[in-house]
Design a protein that fits this description.
With about 500 residues, the protein is α/β, with parallel strands linked by helices. The chain folds into 2 domains: about 180 residues, Rossmann fold (3-Layer(aba) Sandwich); about 280 residues, no CATH class. The chain has 18 helices and 16 strands. It has a 7-stranded mixed β-sheet with strand order 9-11-12-13-14-16-15, sandwiched between helices. Strands 2-3-4-1-6-5 form a 6-stranded mixed β-sheet, sandwiched between helices.
Length: about 500
């Protein structure tokens, strides 16, 4: 019979002579070994073997890499966006671009901060390990890539402080959730090391234009040029709507493009990896959410009603979450780039002092599929996803901060694009997927009357399923455009 002591030793995977020895802590050599594992190009004298196999390059990645190599950049560069949007791919494609630019691979380090071996290590300590590995001074020109900055405590602040400490280093990072919500551009950051700054680029889910580009070409990732003609006949619009339906259901994230079968896309690749991680792990860990089930319930309710009006009071009743906690959860979800709130205007085009009501949109309609499964174009729920898809193109192309909607007793304008200098309504959108508005004798009178009260020169667009062309109502011009075609055009717009 095997002795009990021996059985325990075998179970622990240790030899008898190790009994009583203390547990070994993670050593500097362990961290260095992981760094060398993640940076195999350190073994090469040139960049000829530094290649990555990834999906076709998005326009964002090309612009991001160009900015990373811009000599005028003097602050850390951050790619922020929802989980699953391809930030790691962007970082690795940028790394490859840095090598192609002639930077020695031993001056480039990639650190995946989600690796447990890096837990408890601050960014300065990790940077020191890289510099010490090659005996570089703190004034040397190096490129340091920090993936999953969320895993570092006050990661953005640490990054800004590190730039001050290493003024000649180029610091590049990815981030999935930020509180407070990060906005594009340069931002001043307060940190323990003093004042600092970062530059943020938002990586959105795929636009419909990008999706069409990837679908039309098997490789290369060349997007259709803005203004490219698409078929406008009935058969062409039907074909475009079929592609649009696929985009709405599966095309918002690169995994949906890469999947070989439709049933492999959001249900398998987005739902579990994206939603579960961000709602039950990431936000709980990074934002201090005590009840991730509450957060998940709230997100499901918001997703189910994407494109609709919401009020804190109603959301509290629907979810059972206290109003103060609810406001924090909304901030968390917006900070994780999963939702976007759009403010309300009155019938005179003025914002309310207290935003009691607001619209909430998913940042991609594909998130709806990930939660509830795909929706057929003839479903009564589909028009809300069409509106969400069009709004998502606005979020992706730099129009988010100019979006509003108007609502009053007896009327609503679905989306309002505000003029940047003075905040006047510049363009009005009404959605008419069913054709009921265009077919009505009154038609889009609500939108027209709003334009008369706020700005008669505002462009009015009625977004339809398959109708297009000019129209006139109440002495004003409006345009009918198929929603899929307009979404495509928005996606070709530069932010």
């Amino acid at each position: 019979m095997v002795d009990k002591h021996i059985r325990l030793s075998l179970f622990c995977g240790c030899a008898g002579e190790r009994d009583g020895d203390p547990l070994e802590h993670i050593a500097a050599s362990d961290i260095l070994r992981r760094l060398e594992f993640d940076n195999p190009w350190w073994a090469f004298r040139s960049g000829t073997r530094v290649r990555f196999r990834h999906p076709p390059q998005r326009g964002f990645a090309r612009d991001f890499a160009a900015r990373a190599l811009d000599a005028a950049l003097d602050v850390p560069l951050i790619a922020a966006g929802p989980p699953g949007a391809g930030k790691t791919i962007v970082l690795r494609q940028t790394l490859a671009a840095v090598v192609r630019a002639g930077i020695s691979p031993i001056r480039i380090a990639y650190l995946s901060l989600g690796a447990p071996v890096f837990s408890g290590e601050d960014l300065a300590a990790l940077a020191d390990r890289v510099l010490d590995r090659f005996a570089y001074g703190r004034d040397e020109k190096v490129f340091l890539f920090f993936d999953d900055l969320d895993y570092a405590a006050d990661g953005v602040g640490q990054l800004a402080a590190l730039q001050t400490r290493l003024p000649n280093a180029r610091l590049i990072a990815s981030l999935s959730s930020g509180a407070p919500r990060l906005t594009p551009g340069r931002a001043e950051i307060a940190n323990d090391g003093g004042a600092g700054a970062v530059e943020v680029r938002i990586l959105p889910p795929l636009s419909f234009a990008e999706f069409m580009g990837f679908r039309r070409t098997d490789a290369g990732g060349v997007l259709p040029e803005a203004g490219s003609s698409l078929p406008l006949d009935a058969a062409g619009i039907a074909a475009l709507n079929a592609e649009f339906a696929r985009y709405v259901a599966f095309g918002g994230f690169p995994s949906g493009i890469a999947a070989k079968r439709e049933d492999e896309s959001p249900p398998a690749l987005v739902r579990d990896a994206l939603l579960h991680d961000v709602l039950h792990r990431d936000l709980a860990a990074f934002a201090g959410v005590i009840e991730p089930r509450e957060l998940g319930r709230l997100f499901a309710v918001l997703a189910r009603n994407t494109g609709g009006e919401a009020a804190i009071e109603d959301l509290a009743k629907a979810t059972g979450v206290a109003k103060n906690t609810l406001r924090k959860y909304l901030d968390f979800l917006e900070g994780a780039f999963l939702i976007r709130r759009v403010p309300r205007l009155n019938r005179d085009g003025r914002p309310f002092q207290r935003q009691v009501l607001f619209k909430v949109y998913l940042t991609s309609p594909t998130l709806y599929t990930a939660l509830f499964g795909p929706v057929a174009p003839d479903s009564p729920d589909y028009p809300r996803l069409v509106e969400t898809a069009v709004a998502a193109q606005c979020f992706a192309t730099g129009l988010a901060d100019r979006l509003a909607y108007a609502s009053w007793k007896g009327g609503m304008v679905d989306l309002v694009l505000l003029d940047k200098p003075d905040g006047r309504p510049e363009q009005l959108f009404q959605f008419d997927w069913s054709g009921a508005v265009a077919a009505s004798d009154n038609g889009p009178d609500t939108m027209v009357n709003f334009a008369v009260r706020t700005n008669p020169d505002a462009r009015m667009t009625l977004l339809t399923q398959n109708r297009g062309g000019p129209a006139r109502r109440g002495g004003l011009d409006l345009t009918l455009v198929p929603a899929a075609l307009y979404a495509y055009w928005l996606g070709t717009r530069k932010g």
